Amino acid sequence: MQVQVNTDNTIAGRDDVVRFVESVLEAKLGAVSAGITRVEVHLQDQNAEKSGPDDKRCMVEVRLENRQPVTATNTADNIQSAVTGAVDKMRNILDREIGKQRARR
Question: Class assignment of domain 2-104?
Answer without folding.
Answer: alpha beta
